[in-house]
Inverse folding.
């Protein structure tokens, strides 16, 4: 559980709709704050600062936002990126109460023994495929973790797997994702290679024996509806562009 405070100051904006492209040319990122059914607040901020905030906060770490002298505790609902240049174009913030229970998407991380940086299966030259890299959790803003771990030392032989039910969940955090969702599994490399050969070099994890992979993005572009839709507790399940904040 991280107690780091992420602060961001933004300015109000009158430019809306397609005209925001001029803001982007000036190095600004348009954003909107949804506040529990109240009128949405249109804001903007410096590109570099907004991008760093998103990279650090993701969609799970509270952002202490200041707009026109008013302070909000927020979570990022969505962050939209221009596909070709991978540049940040829009952010939607949801204001939350400090004692309010909210939903947020939290990344997963493998936990290894202190002496190792890989699982027993990988040390034995087997292949470990990751199927799920994040889960939806429910907690108060102060209790939202920066990541949730799973014990990778349990991945030893072909067929071993980790599911959401096996995650090491911090206190005061509830996992909302289906507990049977696969997180990681162990495979024989030759099986993947054979599937790749059969597919003419285009096989993906899963082709050898219906192995499911969940890397496909379900992203949707930010729209004008985001500008006017009031916020609320359950609005944190919206998708961003599938970017890992740590890889921006």
């Amino acid at each position: 559980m991280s107690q780091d405070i992420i602060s961001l100051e933004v300015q109000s904006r009158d430019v809306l709709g397609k005209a925001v492209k001029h803001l982007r040319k000036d190095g600004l990122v348009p954003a909107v704050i949804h506040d529990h059914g109240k009128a949405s607040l249109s804001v903007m901020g410096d590109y570099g600062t907004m991008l760093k905030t998103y990279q650090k906060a993701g969609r799970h770490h509270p952002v202490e936002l200041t707009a026109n002298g008013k302070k909000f505790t927020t979570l990022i609902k969505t962050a939209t990126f221009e596909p070709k240049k991978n540049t940040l174009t829009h952010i939607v913030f949801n204001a939350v109460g400090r004692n309010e229970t909210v939903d947020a998407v939290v990344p997963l991380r493998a936990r290894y023994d202190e002496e190792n940086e890989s699982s027993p299966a990988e040390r034995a030259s087997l292949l470990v495929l990751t199927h799920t890299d994040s889960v939806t959790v429910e907690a108060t803003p102060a209790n939202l973790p920066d990541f949730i771990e799973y014990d990778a030392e349990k991945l030893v032989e072909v067929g071993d797997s980790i599911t959401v039910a096996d995650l090491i969940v911090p206190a005061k955090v509830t996992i909302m994702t289906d507990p049977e969702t696969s997180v990681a599994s162990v495979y024989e490399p030759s099986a993947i290679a054979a599937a790749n050969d059969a597919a003419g070099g285009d096989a993906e994890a899963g082709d050898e024996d219906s192995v499911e992979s969940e890397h496909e993005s379900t992203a949707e572009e930010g729209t004008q509806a985001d500008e006017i839709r009031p916020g609320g507790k359950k609005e944190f399940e919206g998708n961003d562009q599938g970017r890992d904040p740590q890889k921006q």
Q: What stands out?
A: The chain has two domains: 6-100+218-247, 103-198. The helical segments are 21-25, 47-57, 120-123, 189-198, 224-228.
